[in-house]
Amino acid sequence: QVQLVESGGALVQPGGSLTLSCAASGFTFSRYFMRWYRQAPGKERELVAEITNSGGWTNYADSVKGRFTISRDNAQNTLYLQMNSLKPDDTAVYYCKTRIMYRDYWGQGTQVTVSS
Fold this sequence. Notes:
The chain is mostly beta strands and 116 residues long. It has strands at 3-7, 11-12, 18-25, 34-39, 46-51, 58-60, 68-73, 78-83, 92-100, 103-106, 110-114. 0% of the residues lie in helices and 52% in strands. A hairpin with a 6-residue loop joins β4 (34-39) and β5 (46-51). The protein starts with a strand and ends with a strand.
């Protein structure tokens, strides 16, 4: 079955960096578009970044453009989110997601807290 498992969340100081990973299994990872979302307390889940199956095209929310980088390793079935210059507003649970045959699959999420 399709599984997405995020890791790498942590408590980090403002201005710090963090890399999130999403390990995928149960499907042919290299064939599918992947996305990172986040949900802060009391707010709706929002799209953070997205990447094509080949990694040749990426797109970012305006709030993270220039600070976050989405990438993927199709040989390792893993999606990444490199986050730099972190701000308190980046505090949220981060999720990876894919859509297969019109169905959305989500990971369980990983907590990122940006605080001094």
